[in-house]
Amino acid sequence: MRRRILPFALAGIIGFLVDAGVLLLTSPLLGPFRGRLLSFAAAVLATWLINRNFAFADKAAGTGKSRELLRYFLAMLPGMAVNWLIYGLVLTLLPATSAGLILAVAAGSLAGMAANLVAADRLVFRDRH
Q1: CA–CA distance, 86 with 69 (Å, rounded to integer)
Q2: Residue 19 is inside which H or E element, if any?
Q3: Cα(1)–Cα(10) distance, rounded to whole angstroms?
């Protein structure tokens, strides 16, 4: 699993940028929590695409990609719970400005990353053999 950490972290950075960017675009209309639902879903899609093609390319499904995406999304739920808990906590401490939202997303993303790595490796990208 060690060789997967760096590509997984890079996917996480890109996922963070997607998450924060979509949140900044949607939060004025939807608020910081409903906007985060949309931004989190966009980040999950982005990280799945990156992880299946880089971090877990040797274990990615050749067929059944939609099932793999569903497994990936479901496997990210424990990490999402940790992520949302920290996100909400940070938002109670900081104003819901652009900077506050970005810091809250960053803190939540870092908190959920370890759970997401283990879930992706063990539950989603299983050996094809």
Answers
A1: 25
A2: helix 2-53
A3: 15
